[in-house]
């Protein structure tokens, strides 16, 4: 009997300008049940929309792709530099078809970080070598299946939260969905006001435009308006039968109108009509208001574990807005005029990643 042919592992950097290579990695992500944030498409949109370069490392054995690590080089004079997987996402990290390739990709990532003079690597996933640092207990994700029809979807929401949705349904609100210029402008206006009220710099609109342009039918905006004025709006991603409301918010008027509650319910219906079977409510800080909001909608928290590496003598950057060192800055940002915050915020937010 002939011995099986074995191939040694070959690691190399990815050429994002090679359409054939990008398509090959997209297939690998799909075949291995990867997340939307592991798609080369995501990294390319982030690079286009924020100016933070995309990097990637693959493992090949013969002609077979067996591992992939997507990375965004996030750089900021305020927050420092880091290789992030994946930049501006809540997931990402190492994706392999063979477990033994995890260490190879991690080692290649540390070598890349040293060549680029980057002090740390952040993986938004639990897959990493044992010696890498573990970050746990800070965030949870919330997902559940969509119901079979509109009424069942409403009844699937627990009683107290359902009562708030019914109030939103009773109000004179208009629902629109799309990815045209009017949708983008409405979303950015609402989102910018929402994050300003939270004391957070707004991302550049070019980020949202790039994601919508690159993702096509796999991303759109749903907006709730009252009296012709956008009140709540969310940009959602669609991946592997799941909808993820990713960048959303509401104005001050949204609370009394129950526009946010109406928005998420309408998104559930909209997503089902697009063929989705699952709703990913996204990540929230443990114990935060959004964490409680999602639990009240009947979603169970799924604790998230992230991994990180820092070069000897270096510390990982800190972009946690709940850190005590940021509290005074957040309160100051809330007091800035909205117009001024919208002009200077994107330059700051590009470095958050």
TrEMBL record:
- Please list the residue ranges annotated as the BioF2-like acetyltransferase domain: 160-285
Which Pfam families does this chain map to? Answer: Acetyltransf_6
Concerning InterPro entries, the annotation shows: Acyl_CoA_acyltransferase, BioF2-like_GNAT_dom, PEP-CTERM_FemAB-rel, PG_Glycine_Bridge_Synth
Output this protein's name.
FemAB family PEP-CTERM system-associated protein
Lineage in the entry?
Answer: Bacteria, Pseudomonadati, Pseudomonadota, Alphaproteobacteria, Sphingomonadales
